[in-house]
Amino acid sequence: xxxxxxxxxxxxxxxxxxxxxxxxxxxxxxxxxxxxxxxxxxxxxxxxxxxxxxxxxxxxxxxxxxxxxxxxxxxxxxxxxxxxxxxxxxxxxxxxxxxxxxxxxxxxxxxxxxxxxxxxxxxxxxxxxxxxxxxxxxxxxxxxxxxxxxxxxxxxxxxxxxxxxxxxxxxxx
Length: 173
Fold this sequence. Notes:
By secondary structure, this protein is of the alpha+beta class. It has helices at 12-24, 45-55, 60-71, 100-110, 115-120, 126-133, 143-163; strands at 5-10, 39-43, 96-98, 167-172. The chain is globular.
């Protein structure tokens, strides 16, 4: 089983209900099960996307937004989602998240990033570009297509979360 980055956009009430369920359950079961249409699997793209931003000289405010979109923040109390045997982040650090206002700001800044321009700043040779950003092995369909697809999915995910005034929870599974 591959370990990949997961994101879920959820209402504050859903998070509160999960926290309450975990507290009331003898084994900490939060009943975490966000709807599939509100979950995004970023595969292994997160580190590569951040590295493209760094290598291509993305402005610090936009690079920080990209990092927050991928890494989240520890300000939300998500410890109940990291309790054995019901932990959602079985293969990595504890879950992180972004609050509604953070999601809105990240969404705004992601919308200002021109990923095709950043990808064009990489070396033309696919292997050289991959080596520069830390990608190991070949990616079916090509590195640039893979990264553009995942960046667009991330940007669109946050745009929808911001429009719907949702939180975003992130974890590796």
